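Before relying on records like the one below, remember that each one covers exactly one chain. Contacts with other chains, cofactors or solvent are not represented anywhere in the record.
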Amino acid sequence: MCFCRWSGRCRTLAAGHGSLRVLANFGVFFTLTFPNPAGAQSSAPSGPPESQQFAPTDDVAAIRAQLAEQSAAIAKLKALNEQRAREKPAVRVSGYLQIDWTMHNQASQDEINYSTGTPLNQDRFTLRRGHLRFDAKRGQLSGALEIDANTTNGPQVRPIDAEVSLHSTESDNPSQPSVTATAGLMKIPFGFEVPELDVERPFLERSTVMRALFPGEFDLGACIAGRFRFAELAVAVMNGHPIGDKVFPAVAPDRTKEFVGRLGTHAEITPSVMLDLGVSADTGNGFHEGTPTTKDQLVWRDDNGDGIVQATEIQVIPGSSATPSQQFHRFALGGDARLAIRFASHSVLNLRAEIVRASNLDRGIEPTDPVGAGRDLHEFGWYLGATQEITAFGLVGIRYDRYNPDQDSSEQRAVQVVPRDRSYGTCALLAMLRYDDARLAIEYDINRNSLGRDANGSPTNLKSDALTVRAQVRF
């Protein structure tokens, strides 16, 4: 029997048939043996299995565990990004449709306005708005393009919103300050009702004063808007001719620009009472179109209707020299307030009010031209409105607005010059059914104006009350 060292371990080998050679080298003994004959057994215990002899160390196992965790995290992040890409694609498409049925309008006639060639009938179906919007955002840069199709004055397709924006931050957290710079065709930042989305506004149309001063609600320019906690500020420089301007829609006849802005605040008085306040201002220049040179004209007016030219019926209209175009100053100052009171989850009372004082700014109802009138025209308008939710499916509302396009208006009556009230007044009564992204609203508008004349020739109300039903769907 002999002893040997093999892999740092001692073993006892039993001698059997065959030969045994022992080699000594640097104090280490190696024993080579021939196969034992049958029946030979070793008294030393067997060594560990090969898998245990070459098992990885603790460091290698830890590295492998970390790699496995990183692979799982990468796979999870990749799946999350794919899910976000499906939920929020690079380009988001949305839109809405508004179909109006004017069931009755007192001003409607089955006739044609021969000066413009448009029909006077108002009792009809109309595609009031059909909007298709594309939104894209990558990091702090975003863009939007919105197309409007309508049949208000015949079939029409036009861009209504096209803007590029740069955001100071990607988050929408109101507690963090944020600044956004925007350029393009955008909403005019004046008051509350002008920037309000058509698809979210409860009443069918904006108040008379806003449709007169800011027709179309969109203008070309650049805007910087900032927000921090309860304060909001938006300042824009624009062409000054909105897309609904009756004289120069969406163009700039002069190089001067218009400055418009709003400073607002949002306060939570109690968890169920919210208050919004704001002040707005607008200043710029309007444009008076000049006249070309005219020649002398000879006019015959058959006063007695006999068809014979007589000397007393011939009139000479002398020619005139050209007059240059001119600019005139215009401005507006307004204030707005909103109050929301929540009584239950689907019972919210919303109150809204707005007041505007302006000069030479009417561009939608009675476009002002102080150069031609020889004096400035001062506009004044306001509205009060309230809506009440009735469960999740119903809403009722009322709004009264009043607008005077010329507070200094007067007219000649007999031998006297007397003041004239040219105000427009509208009381809108609203009832609405809502389900998901669909609405069915019915509104009766009681309109008062001074466009008519009584038997004595004095201004009186021209009947124009209207009953309208609107179906709306959002997608």
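The two ends are 94 Å apart (CA to CA).
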